[in-house]
Design brief:
This protein has six helices and six strands; from the N terminus they run E-E-E-E-H-H-H-H-E-E-H-H. With 147 residues, it is α+β, with helices and mostly antiparallel strands. It folds into two domains: 39 residues, no CATH class; 87 residues, His-Me finger endonucleases (His-Me finger endonuclease fold), CATH 3.40.1800. The strands form three sheets. It has a two-stranded antiparallel ribbon with strand order 1-2. Strand 5 and strand 6 form a beta hairpin. The chain is elongated and about 65 Å long.
């Protein structure tokens, strides 16, 4: 018998998936809880696990992640930025409701100054260009040359 870390119910070992790195070779969460926690979730609801199961606020989780990155953002600051942008990406203008992930907090990697909220695609684009305006301008010129 083993007690599930999530539901706290003791169950036979056959109710647990194998986990090669654990001490007893079994997962700490039973199969039923695994299906509940991970089976119904898609990419859009990746933070939904914390909200539905642990009853934690997804924004609070993101704020903790930002804090670990050295960004200090209060809930009020985030909400003001979100409202100012109308819940849309500052670059492509797509609303968060049609995106597969929530908006990212874009910041300057040199001084950690917060710039705006971006969708994942736009945030990755800026990151891949290493915040370099010349690279982005060359990319625009490149695209224009094929129009």
């Amino acid at each position: 018998m083993k007690t599930c870390r999530n539901c706290k119910i003791s169950k036979d070992e056959s109710h647990y998936y194998k986990h090669p790195k654990s001490k007893n070779g079994l997962n700490t969460i039973c199969k039923d809880c695994q299906k509940l926690l991970y089976g119904d979730l898609n990419r859009k609801n990746s933070l939904n696990y914390y909200y539905r199961v642990k009853k934690e606020d997804p924004l609070k989780i993101r704020m903790n992640q930002w804090k670990k990155m050295g960004l200090s953002v209060t809930r009020d600051q985030y909400n003001k930025l979100y409202s100012f942008q109308g819940g849309k990406c500052a670059i492509c203008d797509r609303h968060e409701s049609i995106l597969s992930n929530s908006l990212c907090l874009d910041h300057n990697h040199y001084n950690n100054q917060i710039r705006a909220l971006l969708c994942t695609r736009c945030n990755v684009m800026i990151g891949n260009a290493e915040d370099n305006i010349q690279i982005l301008e060359k990319a625009i010129d490149y695209l224009r040359s094929f129009i």
